[in-house]
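testing teh design pipeline on a random one, pls ignore if ur not involved
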């Protein structure tokens, strides 16, 4: 009788657990810089596959969102988008659940460049944020460039350091507890995204973060280059330059009292257009 009761309770708990559906959407993450026509047409094609295909642009990261919004909307229309809208939200508007209706029936969302903190100050932990995660899970494509790329991961690089630095001497060290991060939108939980990567020599800051968070991959995307992350957690590189992946999952990391870092057996991958990489297996897909 006791065994039957335990079995019944176990079965009841199992049945009561919420069902977590697999993500069906795509992430389209651009490292900044110019956006080749072939790249953006691919974004439009992915948006067309879900719901009405309508694309929503959020340009709030920009210092001039009223200029960037219509400019990017016109660009996407030229590249074949059937319907494009841009919305410049305030924090108060993002907190109003009624405004989530702007994301009903959309096929894609695009975050423009600028300062990622501006975008996160408005969207984090709001009904709009939750709706974005929901439509991504169901099949929409979520894209962004520059600052719009940085917000994709759960750990977001702000662009600041804790140490005092003179202009022109930013991120000259590889050390612990120096790179300032905050929560991002959380579309990617297994990697940290960095942008303008090779052009702006941002290796030091991503290596530092990966060494401090060895369970996470570091993905640095250069300008005019993008990764397209599919539901199977494999991304493909498209564009004109490179994507760098740092993997410290099997490395031996030491952090000294001076905050100096050392690490052994960290893996680095240099990827270019057409290369594919699995976030799940942490390896190149041939």
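output:
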């Amino acid at each position: 009788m006791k065994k039957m009761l335990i079995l019944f309770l176990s079965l009841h708990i199992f049945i009561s657990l919420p069902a977590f559906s697999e993500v069906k959407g795509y992430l389209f993450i651009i490292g900044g810089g110019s956006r080749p026509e072939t790249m953006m047409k691919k974004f439009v094609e992915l948006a067309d596959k879900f719901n009405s295909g309508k694309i929503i642009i959020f340009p709030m990261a920009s210092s001039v969102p009223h200029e960037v919004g219509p400019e990017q909307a016109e660009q996407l229309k030229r590249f074949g988008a059937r319907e494009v809208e841009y919305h410049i939200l305030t924090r108060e508007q993002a907190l109003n659940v009624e405004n989530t209706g702007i994301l009903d029936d959309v096929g894609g969302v695009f975050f423009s460049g600028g300062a990622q903190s501006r975008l996160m100050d408005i969207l984090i932990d709001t009904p709009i944020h939750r709706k974005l995660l929901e439509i991504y899970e169901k099949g929409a494509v979520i894209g962004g460039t520059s600052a719009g790329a940085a917000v994709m991961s759960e750990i977001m690089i702000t662009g600041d350091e804790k140490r005092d630095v003179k202009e022109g001497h930013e991120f000259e060290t590889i050390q612990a507890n120096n790179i300032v991060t905050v929560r991002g939108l959380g579309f990617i939980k297994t990697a940290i995204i960095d942008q303008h990567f090779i052009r702006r020599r941002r290796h030091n800051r991503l290596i530092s973060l990966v060494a401090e968070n060895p369970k996470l991959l570091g993905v640095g995307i250069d300008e005019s280059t993008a990764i397209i992350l599919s539901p199977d957690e494999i991304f493909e590189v498209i564009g004109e330059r490179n994507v760098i992946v740092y993997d410290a999952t099997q490395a031996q990391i030491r952090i000294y009292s001076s905050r100096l870092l050392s690490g052994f057996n960290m893996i680095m991958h240099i990827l270019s257009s057409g290369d594919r990489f699995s976030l799940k297996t942490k390896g190149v897909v041939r």
